[in-house]
Amino acid sequence: MKSSASPPDHPGSTSGPGTTPTKPGAVTGWLKRLFRLPWAGAIAAIIVLLAIDLMADSSYLAVSYNSSTGHLVGNLIDIMRAAAPVLMIATGMTLVIATAGIDLSVGSVMAAAGAVSMEFLSNNQNAASASAALSALALALALGTVLGLANGLLVTAVGLQPFISTLVMMLAARGLAKVITGGQNARATSEPFRFIANGYVLGLPVVFLIALVIAASVALVCRRTALGMMIEAVGLNPRAARLAGLRSRGLILTTYVVSGLLAAIAGVFATASVMVVDVSNTGYLMEMDAILAVVIGGTSLAGGKFSLGGAAAGALLIATLDKTVLFLGVPASATPAFKAAVIIALCLLQSQRARSWLASIKASRRSRADQTEAVAA
């Protein structure tokens, strides 16, 4: 006859009325799964940077409410605002890189989009009106879309390598910005247009909220439809994707158009914040920040699987790093080296080879510990 006694509890578990048994190592397993996420390294790096800032100033993370303006102010708010343009171009760059391409022209597209919007407003007698601001915004977005379309056609129709075609466009778009403004920095005054980058809603920067909504919308479209899977298929194996019936040219063209459009939005953000476009410096080296954000977010430059959430985390990391560099008073001449050192360290930690090496070291230590315990026994 079977015993009615209940089996002994598992060591480390709890049982009884109103309690739920806890599996040993459940928390550890959850942490391991968390750290396997592509953006886990970026989030960890952000936490480390903020901890360093806190050690330098215990009030660094303080956010206060300005009753006179109704805005939230603080370093975290500044980081949100600075992350918005990087988030835009990183989102577009992620899609392009997922197809095994690259877009080096996003910084110049930012300058061209900012130039056409500032030039339009500076020559418009009703620049202070909302209709003029919307027209300037439409012109900027249209120009970015056209330049992105040109990139896509050079890659798909002409057959140029993405690196070469976008390098050509990088030079052409910057030159176009100078032609639009006559080689001079263009200025304008328009409160509705300025609100895009400097306005607040519910105390938060409008520019960050817009960037977040756009990035979330792109991610939703990619993950709730077959678009994301098709882009990954093209990036992993273009020939197999074509044999499977996918129109790889159309997909690649779409990613470059989206990249150009989002770069134009980033250009509007950059120029609307100061209401001036510097045709030589607006968007300068932003393509590097975008590529770094994408790589830090876990997307491979070889194409295939991509992570838009990781790109967003990478954009926040870039903004946090820039803010930390300024806050710690790192000399301007040493800033690129400091930034590169942090990013290289992060990329090494995310490298599969580095992870395998660390895992082998951990396994060898565990083996030696087991041998020592066996000898002692």
Short synopsis of the structure:
With 377 residues, the chain is mainly alpha-helical. The protein is built from 15 helices and six strands.
List low-confidence stretches: 1-19
**Rg over alpha carbons:** 25 Å
CATH class: Mainly Alpha
Largest sheet: 2 strands, antiparallel
Strand order of the largest sheet: 1-2
CATH topology: ABC transporter involved in vitamin B12 uptake, BtuC
Task: Identify the overall geometry.
Answer: globular
Notes on the protein architecture:
It is a single chain. The longest helix is centred in the middle third of the chain and has 29 residues, at 130-158. The protein has helices at 26-35, 40-56, 75-98, 106-122, 130-158, 162-181, 191-198, 206-224, 227-236, 238-243, 248-272, 286-296, 308-327, 335-350, 352-376; strands at residues 64-66, 71-73, 186-187, 200-201, 204-205, 276-277. A two-stranded antiparallel ribbon has the order 1-2. A two-stranded antiparallel sheet has the order 3-6. It has a single domain, classed as ABC transporter involved in vitamin B12 uptake, BtuC, CATH 1.10.3470. The chain is built from 15 helices and 6 strands. Residues 1-19 have low confidence and may be disordered. With 377 residues, the chain is mainly α.
